């Protein structure tokens, strides 16, 4: 099919040969699982189990909260050891609410787990609801709840489903292996998603460095004339969904918009596989394929791991480190995040664990910018990274925003190409985070102001009420006195009728009391 | 609200095998053939001047870094000072006294580079600032060119004699000559026609190979072209600046030559003479002082070409590359401000793209 | 000589007149500036700036008597906004030296005296007579007014800890860019 050109990009050494030949194997049952309640974009799930409770595989552990959220299920049968705080699978090293599960070794599915005979007979809403209930999120790393994307058809005129099998990040091979080994299941998942979206055009896009996956998917999709396989040139960041859609359709997603704005929904093959499992068998998302690789790993592998397995367990299974790694990363080397320790658990969005050697990372001390323009040429978004970084460095974040900071997708092409080894991406991540923090601070300030005004108004109202009460009493007093005086005067005028003078005095004293 | 993290570095964790020292080193490698040719052609004095200029550049850089309180070693090792000294030496008359090179290096490094904030911060090309300053301050020394006297040839000065030429107090009248550009300029000024002047001084082969009087590293058009193509192949520079600059000069020269062949020289003459090739491949392409976008580079280079031709043809100097590049350097911030790539998902004015058949369902 | 004096005098007078007219017609309404500043300030009357409330502080900032960096709850963002509003350059280095703090009530020491929540400018403390009080983290501005009045010293000012949603990469320390 006809492909369109995208701007910029880089050609990193893909190093996929390290793990591409390794078939997916299941990791042995770990001793303990730490299942974080936030494995997705959106609101954290709220726990639905108690300490000590026994759960079966697939039982609900935590319920999603709100529209953009996802539930979390038990990856295996066992006993809940606690609901507490545990280091997150995140560069910050912060802890998050986490459920600790001790597997009983039986790996017994819950009784209520049940698939659908014919998913295509279901209403599209019902498909999306089942996907939501299974806790499926975008498994390419963005972890956006998949069901929300399947429901986009309500607000947008969707005509195309794109399956993003580009896997443009170097090293990673999990999608490649999944498409090679489980092509039928992936295609089935894709067809179910297409049914939910109501689209007639499906494009499975795979980079040319994965010819086996291209072939396997083409065979599996042969009976469905709606599905086309797009063979993409190998270039980073081909897997950025906006750039992938541009490559396939020639259209750019409007700034600050979604691909749905131009009628396209993009999903990952692993997500399609999870949808297949959720609909056909009723399995919630409790495991995923992870590539454990890098020059420092003794035996690179593709592993099917239960969510909540510690990174250390994966490393142990791969023979540990061959040499001391320079960097331990979750995800690919371009957009992955450094892991704070090996005891953090695997989550729905983690597609790789990389242990890279010094030679692989090729880090150097940053030098000043020589304005060579390599970053400008590399940027797939048409930005001028060197200027954005210069503005950020001197604290002019507004200036950086004016230059397009918010259009930056943090793909890392600029920093990859920079001969000065300037940490451009970190500048932009910092600037984006700081801008968001300022936004929150501003919001809080507005809220503070509202609260303070409310309080002032309330205080004023109370004072006013008090004043009015006081005034009222004064008036009453005055009225009483007046009445008294009048009565007195009347009494005096009448004179000598003593029986009548007693009463007003008594009533006045009653008022007083 | 950021906190200290165990791994305080964000990605990417892969990097293209590039660095600033590598960039500078490759540029020097590309300059090497033309430099060696210059040294062989103009003899020991050229080598002495070359060494003196580069040494002065290194010393000036080290001293400036120390005064500025910056780490001396990593910045000195980036190679930018050596390259500046090297480029400056290439543009000097080969038999100029050592202090011309030394003063030039001081001007380039201290005044044109470090005062602006060091590497990457300078507005003007340091080597060209130095060359122009020298040309204006020491016009005699800067225009006393010598005819080629290849090493070990009959007329070539020996090692000691050369020391006297470069480091002596006396000038060297005996070997003075003029560059082709200078000679043609003078003769034209006296009312002679080109058909009478050119055959004497300019041959198409000698012009390309560089066996003519001129600055130390500017004469060999072929070797400079080879170095430039090597840099483009290595992706240190892109083709946009050299091709546009040479193209502009060639077009202007062709048009004027067609209008009046007796007073305006042809495009070939302009391309191989003087500093055109050195300027197009090594001076105008200076990363720091040229625009960062491709379109900006094309505008910049067209401006350079235009100014070179105008200065050579109608202004007071026979050669205009240095002036042209400096004038366009001054325009670089302006070009970079106005010429930016179109941002993904936005139109040229920066507004989000809108499609007529918008997919959003109006509800 | 005379001509020169006359022409210069005329020039001076004319320009002076122009300046006079300009100052009359292009005058910056100081009360308007005060209002604009007051609109930006939090309005919680917390008094951390040393002025009795946000109104007087706004006046002081607008007139230049107080620096734009005076408001601790507003932090760096507010200082920048004020600086751009008033067209001054502010030294922001001193701002936000301490991380944002919020009050925390130790429930085992709290006696439910209600003193703190009466003082709270943003109603961030919940409670009633003889009931243990607690703080709404979202509404607390860290003004420390409650901290000062608590008779049992059960209120502690704690730094606001980042979450996965609020954490972001620190600015690179590199010399470069």
From TrEMBL, chain A:
One of its GO terms (molecular function) is metal ion binding. Residues 462-490 have a biased composition (Basic and acidic residues). GO terms for biological process: electron transport chain. Residues 462-513 are annotated as: Disordered. [4Fe-4S] cluster 1 binds at residues 369, 372, 375, 418. It comes from the Bacteria. [4Fe-4S] cluster 2 binds at residues 379, 408, 411, 414. Residues 360-389, 399-427 form the 4Fe-4S ferredoxin-type domain. InterPro entries: 4Fe4S_Fe-S-bd (IPR017896), 4Fe4S_Fe_S_CS (IPR017900), Ion_transpt_RnfC/RsxC (IPR010208), Nuo51_FMN-bd (IPR011538), Nuo51_FMN-bd_sf (IPR037225), RnfC_N (IPR026902), Soluble_ligand-bd (IPR019554). The keyword Ubl conjugation does not apply. PROSITE patterns: 4FE4S_FER_1, 4FE4S_FER_2. Coiled coil: none annotated. It is an enzyme of class 7 (translocase). Its cofactor is [4Fe-4S] cluster. Its EC number is 7.-.-.-. It is a peripheral membrane protein. It is found in: Cell inner membrane. It holds the Pfam family Fer4_9. The keyword Translocase applies. Part of a membrane-bound complex that couples electron transfer with translocation of ions across the membrane. Belongs to the 4Fe4S bacterial-type ferredoxin family. RnfC subfamily. PANTHER family: ION-TRANSLOCATING OXIDOREDUCTASE COMPLEX SUBUNIT C. This is Ion-translocating oxidoreductase complex subunit C. It comes from Imhoffiella purpurea.
Automatic annotation (TrEMBL), chain B:
Keywords: Cell inner membrane, Cell membrane, Electron transport, Flavoprotein, FMN, Membrane, Phosphoprotein, Translocase, Transmembrane, Transmembrane helix, Transport. InterPro entries: NqrB/RnfD, RnfD_bac. Its main location: membrane. Its EC number is 7.-.-.-. It comes from Imhoffiella purpurea. This is Ion-translocating oxidoreductase complex subunit D. Coiled coil: none annotated. Part of a membrane-bound complex that couples electron transfer with translocation of ions across the membrane. The keyword Translocase applies. It is found in: Cell inner membrane.
UniProtKB/TrEMBL annotation, chain C:
The keyword Electron transport applies. Its cofactor is [4Fe-4S] cluster. GO terms for cellular component: plasma membrane. Its main location: membrane. Its EC number is 7.-.-.-. [4Fe-4S] cluster 2 binds at residues 110, 113, 116, 150. Belongs to the 4Fe4S bacterial-type ferredoxin family. RnfB subfamily. This is Ion-translocating oxidoreductase complex subunit B. It comes from Imhoffiella purpurea.
């Amino acid at each position: 099919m006809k492909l369109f050109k995208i701007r910029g990009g880089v050609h990193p050494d893909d190093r996929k040969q390290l793990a591409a030949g390794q078939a997916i194997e299941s990791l042995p049952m770990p001793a303990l699982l730490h299942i974080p309640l936030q494995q997705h974009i959106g609101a954290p799930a709220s726990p639905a189990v108690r300490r000590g409770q026994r759960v079966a595989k697939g039982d609900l552990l935590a319920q999603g909260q709100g529209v953009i959220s996802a539930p979390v299920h038990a990856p295996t049968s066992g006993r809940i050891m606690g609901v507490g705080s545990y280091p997150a699978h995140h560069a910050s090293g912060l802890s998050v609410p986490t459920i600790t599960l001790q597997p009983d070794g039986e790996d017994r599915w819950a009784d209520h787990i049940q698939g659908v005979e014919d998913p295509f007979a279901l209403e599209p809403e019902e498909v999306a609801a089942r996907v939501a209930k299974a806790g499926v999120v975008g498994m390419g790393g963005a972890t956006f709840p998949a069901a929300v994307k399947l429901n986009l058809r309500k607000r947008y005129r969707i005509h195309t489903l794109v399956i993003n099998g580009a896997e443009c990040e170097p090293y990673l091979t999990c999608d490649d292996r999944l498409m090679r080994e489980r092509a039928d299941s992936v295609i089935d998942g894709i067809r179910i998603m297409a049914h939910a979206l109501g689209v007639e055009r499906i494009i499975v896009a795979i980079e040319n460095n994965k010819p086996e996956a291209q072939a396997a998917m083409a065979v599996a999709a042969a009976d469905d004339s709606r599905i086309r396989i797009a063979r993409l040139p190998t270039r980073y960041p081909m897997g950025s969904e906006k750039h992938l859609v541009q490559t396939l359709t020639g259209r750019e997603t409007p700034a600050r918009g979604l691909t749905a704005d131009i009628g396209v929904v993009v999903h990952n093959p692993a997500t399609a596989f999870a949808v297949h499992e959720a609909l056909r068998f009723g399995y919630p998302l409790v495991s995923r394929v992870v590539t454990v690789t890098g020059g420092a790993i003794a035996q690179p592998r593709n592993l099917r791991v239960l969510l909540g397995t510690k990174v250390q367990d994966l490393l142990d299974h791969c023979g540990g480190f061959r040499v001391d790694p320079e960097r331990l990363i979750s995800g690919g080397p371009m957009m992955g995040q450094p892991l704070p320790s090996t005891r953090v658990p695997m989550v729905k969005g983690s597609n790789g664990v990389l242990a890279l050697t010094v030679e692989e990372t090729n880090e150097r001390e940053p030098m000043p910018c020589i304005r060579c323009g390599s970053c400008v040429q590399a940027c797939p978004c048409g930005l001028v990274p060197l200027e954005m970084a210069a503005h950020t460095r001197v604290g002019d974040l507004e200036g950086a925003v004016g230059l397009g900071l918010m259009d930056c997708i943090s793909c890392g092409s600029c920093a990859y190409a920079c001969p000065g080894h300037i940490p451009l991406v970190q500048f932009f991540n910092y600037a984006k985070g700081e801008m968001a923090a300022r936004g929150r601070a501003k919001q809080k300030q507005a809220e503070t102001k509202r609260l303070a005004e409310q309080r002032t108004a309330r205080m004023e109202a109370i004072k006013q009420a008090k004043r009015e009460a006081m005034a009222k009493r004064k008036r009453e007093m005055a009225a009483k006195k007046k009445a008294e005086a009048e009565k007195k005067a009347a009494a005096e005028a009448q004179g000598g009728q003593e029986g009548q003078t007693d009463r007003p005095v008594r009533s006045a004293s009653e008022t007083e009391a | 609200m950021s906190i200290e993290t165990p791994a305080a570095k964000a990605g990417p964790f892969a990097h293209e095998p590039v660095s600033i020292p590598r960039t500078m080193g490759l540029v020097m490698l590309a300059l090497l053939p033309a430099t060696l040719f210059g040294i062989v052609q103009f003899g020991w004095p050229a080598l002495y001047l070359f060494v003196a200029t580069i040494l002065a550049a290194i010393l000036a850089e080290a001293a400036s870094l120390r005064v500025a309180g910056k780490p001396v070693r990593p910045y000195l090792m980036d190679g930018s000072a050596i390259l500046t000294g090297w480029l400056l030496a290439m543009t000097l008359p080969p038999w100029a006294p050592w202090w011309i090179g030394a003063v030039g290096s001081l001007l380039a490094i201290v005044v044109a580079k470090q005062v602006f904030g060091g590497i990457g911060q300078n507005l003007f090309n340091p080597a060209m600032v130095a060359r122009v300053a020298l040309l204006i301050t020491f016009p005699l020394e800067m225009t006393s060119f010598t005819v080629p006297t290849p090493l070990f040839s009959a007329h070539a000065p020996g090692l000691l004699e050369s020391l006297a030429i470069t480091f002596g107090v006396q000038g060297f009248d005996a070997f003075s000559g003029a560059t082709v550009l200078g000679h043609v300029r003078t003769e034209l000024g006296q009312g002679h026609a080109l058909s009478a002047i050119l055959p004497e001084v300019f041959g198409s082969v000698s012009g390309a190979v560089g066996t003519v009087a001129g600055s130390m590293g500017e004469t060999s058009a072929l070797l400079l072209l080879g170095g430039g193509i090597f840099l483009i192949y290595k992706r240190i520079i892109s083709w946009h600046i050299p091709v546009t600059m040479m193209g502009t000069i060639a077009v202007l020269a062709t048009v004027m030559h067609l209008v009046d062949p007796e007073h305006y020289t042809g495009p070939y003459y302009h391309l191989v003479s003087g500093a055109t090739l050195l300027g197009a491949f090594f001076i105008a392409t200076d990363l720091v002082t040229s625009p960062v976008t491709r379109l900006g580079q094309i505008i910049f280079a067209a401006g350079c070409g235009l100014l070179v031709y105008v200065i050579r043809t109608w202004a007071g100097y026979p050669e205009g590359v240095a002036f042209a590049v400096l004038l366009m350097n001054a325009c670089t911030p302006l070009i970079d401000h106005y010429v930016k790539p179109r941002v993904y998902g936005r139109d040229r004015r920066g507004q989000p793209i809108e499609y007529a058949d918008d997919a959003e369902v109006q509800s | 000589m005379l001509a020169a004096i006359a022409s210069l005098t005329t020039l001076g007078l004319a320009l002076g007149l122009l300046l006079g007219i300009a100052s009359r017609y292009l005058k910056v309404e100081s009360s308007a500036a005060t209002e604009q500043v007051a609109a930006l300030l939090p309005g919680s009357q917390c008094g951390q700036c040393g002025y009795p409330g946000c109104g007087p502080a706004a006046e002081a900032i607008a007139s230049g008597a107080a620096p734009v960096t005076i408001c601790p709850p507003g932090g760096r963002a507010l200082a920048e906004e004020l600086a751009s509003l008033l067209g001054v350059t502010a030294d922001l280095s001193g701002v936000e030296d301490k991380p944002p703090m919020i009050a925390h009530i130790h429930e085992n020491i709290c006696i439910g005296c209600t003193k703190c929540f009466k003082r709270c400018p943003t109603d961030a403390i919940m409670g009633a007579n003889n009931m243990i009080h607690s703080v709404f983290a979202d509404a607390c501005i860290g003004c420390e007014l409650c901290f000062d009045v608590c008779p049992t010293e059960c209120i502690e000012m704690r730094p606001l800890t980042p979450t996965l949603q609020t954490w972001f990469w620190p600015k690179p320390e590199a010399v470069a860019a």
